[in-house]
Amino acid sequence: MKRYMGLASSFGLAAAIALVGCSGEQAERAVDATGRGISTTGEAIGGAGDKLEASSEGSKLEKAGDAVAHGLQSTGEAVDKLGEKVSDSAEKVGDKVDAAGAKIKDAADATVEKVKDVKDATVDKLKELTGKADDAAQDAGAKVDQAAQDAADKADAAVKEGAEEVKEGAEAVEKKADEVVNP
Description:
Layout: H1 2-19, H2 24-56, H3 62-88, H4 90-181
């Protein structure tokens, strides 16, 4: 379980560093520095165990001091080994960061290309729809103009017909008036 957690954390570190734009070499240096820091901490813990052992010699708590000192020395050695392993894994982390960075760059490039394709398709479709709308507007305008012309022609014909009927009616009234006046 610890092994998988270590691998997961190494990969997580690699991915995080790649996302913020660090190179594999930078990641390698960071992991190596972390390993050295852990080793130094382990040595300090071991040194504290040595000091505790030395200070408890000849006292009533010598056995307890020795046990605690031995525990601290063991812990210090384990932490020191962990630091060495972290430092040893630095190169692998750097390689993983470089690989992850390349994959992320490729994915970003592919995403940019896909977005450009979608944008181009959208622009083309918009132009097509705009052209259809312009054509429909022109057709509707022509139909409105034709309908207005037809209505004007019908109105003109109705006015002429009405004027003709009025003229005929006026002539009929005049004729009747002449008949009444000149019997």
